[in-house]
Amino acid sequence: MSPVNKRAEKARQTRARMLRAAGELFVERGYGATPLQDIADRAGVAVQTIYFTFRNKRNLLKEVVDTAIAGDDEPVATMDRPWFRDALETETAEAHLRAHVAGTRRVLQRVAEIVEVLRVAAATDPEVVDLWPKGENPRYTVQAEAAKSLVAKPGARPGLSATEAADILFALLSPELYLLLVRDRAWTPERWEQWARETLHSQLVL
After folding, report:
1. Do 138 and 54 share a structural domain?
2. How many structural domains does the chain have?
3. Do residues 66 and 88 both lie within one domain?
4. pLDDT classification of 1: cutoffs 50, 70, 90
5. Which of 17, 198, 195, 183 is nearest to 109 (CA)?
6. What is the pLDDT confidence band of residue 124, given thresholds at 50, 70 and 90?
7. Which domain holds residue 15?
8. How far is CA 165 from CA 4, 77, 112, 158, in A?
9. Rounded CA separation 43/16 (Å)
10. What is the Cα–Cα distance from 164 to 150, expressed in whole angstroms?
C-alpha cells in the first residue's frame, strides 16, 4: 500500500472510531450530556481531531445517524442498497415482504437507539433539525417505494393501494415500535422480525 493510501486508510479508521464512540456515548448518556472531550477520550484522539473532521457536535450527530442507517460511510442511499434492490427484484409479494422485513431489521438494529437520541436532541436543540433537508420523511419515502413494488406483485392483498401499504409499513417498521419491543420488552431482534413479518403478512399478503 502506498504512503498516500496508508494515510487515507488511517484517516478512515480514525473517523470510524470517532463515529463509533459518539454513537455509543450518545445512546448511553444522551446527546446533551455528552461532551466532545469524552468522545475524543473513548476514540483515542485529540478533541481537535473531532473539530477538524466534523466541525461541531451537531454535524457529528448527523454523521452518526447517517452512518447507522447505511451501515457504512459510503454515499449510497437506502433505496440503492443491495438488500433493498434485492427485495424489489423478488417475484412475489410474500417473498418481497420477507426480504424487506429482514433488511429493515438489520437497519433498525443499528439505528433505532440513535434515532431516539436524535428525537430528544431535536427537542432541545432546534438547529439539529436543520441538518436534514425539509420535506417528506426519508423513512416514509423508502417504505413507499417498497409498497409500490409489493402491491404490484402476485400474492398482494386485492384492493390494497400502494399508499395504504406504505402507511402500514411505515407504522409497523418504525424505530419507536422496534425499541418498545426489543429494548423495553426484551424481545430478541429475531423475534421482532418474525412478529413484524407475520403481522404485515396478515395486512398485505394473501
Report:
1. no
2. 2
3. no
4. low
5. 183
6. confident
7. 1-74
8. 49, 22, 22, 12
9. 9
10. 12
Domain boundary among 16, 39, 74: 74
Q: Hey, what amino acid is at 164? A: E
Give the pLDDT score at 74: 80
- Let me know whether 66 and 82 are in one domain: no
What is the spatial distance between Cα 138 and Cα 32, in angstroms, rounded to a whole number? 25
- Output the CA torsion sign for 62, 64, 69, 70: positive
Instruction: Verify that 125 and 142 share a domain, yes or no.
Output: yes
Residue 147 and residue 89 in one domain = yes
The cell numbers describing 52, all together, are 477538524
Residue 72 has pLDDT above 90, yes or no: no
For the chain, how big is the Rg over CA atoms in Å? Answer: 19
Longest dimension (CA), the chain: 61
